């Protein structure tokens, strides 16, 4: 009898469980409204996927943004970059407009003296503010090459999708030009993708790529692929930019110079005096394998009793940790009488570290790169 009760209990329990399963299955239906939202979310995800796929295949991109100058007037900035990560243009870094040229692993910046002062380079701010400076991407809040090249940009945006709201009803808005976009928002900023085909990325927040450094570049960039004539113009403009770099300063090195062996040779009855010195430089901070050039400016103040003083200057280049011999000449106006004078020369020298830059070689590399891209 006990065994029969046990068997009956098991059968009864199984019947109860079966009844519960049927009841739960019958209450899990999706409402029509929820299904419509799910369908719209599916359409949005497909649009984002298509737009990112197209963006990653672009040969080059143009990124545009707007900032305000010191007077509050809006100014437009643009940066163009190839699939290989070579690019140039203007970007906003921490409230400063910085001209950027990136060629492979080499980064060149041009900014005013205040920018360099804000980065702790008070001593070099004046000279750096007057030219181009070679540095490394880690010196910037966000290195444009590894973040803005088409495939790198897509990888960063894909990684950021989890921070964007993709579970509620998609948000659509009309831009000023009438384009309708999906606007995916989150704590780091927004991503905009066109609702109509062919889907494309319209804009993105740089913080989506780098939550720490990105906000220092502003709130958003408009993005568009460059092909055809626009790509060819990019190539031409890039060549011009490369030609304007000159001999950039080395932003990572410093040079000290010492003047020795100063000699003074004055010609009788002529009034000309030539001062010759040796200038020895010492460079610190240059990386392994680097071959910086030290540009030396020599100034010599020459004075003579009753004749006054004259100043001459000259410039020269020397290898790092080397000595260069330099000279310059002054000429005094001599009175119409025979006399002797004590002449003194006071030399001073300043050294600037520059990075050798062969513009023609760089342009040749760009020709090959753009050739494969169609520009």
From TrEMBL:
Is Signal there in the keyword field?
A: yes
> Which keywords does the record carry?
Signal
Q: Which residues form the signal peptide?
A: 1-18
Cross-referenced PROSITE patterns, in alphabetical order? PROKAR_LIPOPROTEIN (PS51257)
The protein's name is Lipoprotein
**Organism name:** Amycolatopsis carbonis
Q: What is the lineage of its organism?
A: Bacteria, Bacillati, Actinomycetota, Actinomycetes, Pseudonocardiales
